[in-house]
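agent> fetching stored inputs for the flavin mononucleotide docking request
agent> found them:
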Amino acid sequence: MNAINCIAERMSIRSFKEDPVPESTLREVLTLAGRSPSYKNSQPWEVMVLSGARKAALTVEMTRLLESGAPQTPDLADPTSWPEAEEGRIHSLYQKRKETTGIDLADPSVIIRAKKANFAFYGAPHALYLYQDNSLSLWSLFDLGLFAQTLMLAAQAHGLGTVPQAFVTDYAAEIKQFLGIPTQKRLVLGLSIGYPNMESPANKLKTDRSPIDDFVRFVC
Ligand SMILES: Cc1cc2nc3c(=O)[nH]c(=O)nc-3n(C[C@H](O)[C@H](O)[C@H](O)COP(=O)(O)O)c2cc1C
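agent> prediction call returned; pasting tokens
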């Protein structure tokens, strides 16, 4: 699969087959992700790959925290407001997701169900956590974003599906303790990874993008 196909065909996958991914494939995907550019080649990324009993236990723990009403402890704060253009795009996504999957993320009661599906890593056989030292600057956060995208494209090239997940960092303090990640690390992103179940309605959502003239200015 060439790079253009990988970029064009990647989409967030929210239903997976149970089949585990061979460790050699996960290693290849992570090796390719490690080719990402970074500020002064500092490579400010650390990854935990979770599978099997440990992943299942984390799902139980995050669900317990949610159901107990425990306060969230994310290392990256949830946005509280958005500029108009971005807010409009989020609204369009919610509308489209409601039409395609019946999930209305604007409805607070649905959010609980959606969070539980996130905490179960949408049935994926593996979950990845991306983290880095919290003394690193915003540039390093940017670098970790580049790493995440390279990882998702490399996974796509291997026939794997992924979804980046902020929700699975809601309880960062507890998750880090559970996984033995030092407190001075910031837990930036979770990702589910596995073979996509393309029969599922959850994977029927192909999101829109704004036309480039909405966000590009050619100047000469
Ligand atoms: C930083 C980040 C956090 C995200 N968090 C979640 C999440 O918690 N749960 C989820 O289902 N999708 C999550 N997504 C996926 C986005 O909703 C998705 O990328 C966006 O709607 C565009 O759709 P696409 O990935 O299918 O192109 C996240 C994406 C990013 C980049």
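agent> quick read of the result: The chain has a mean pLDDT of 96.
agent> awaiting further instructions
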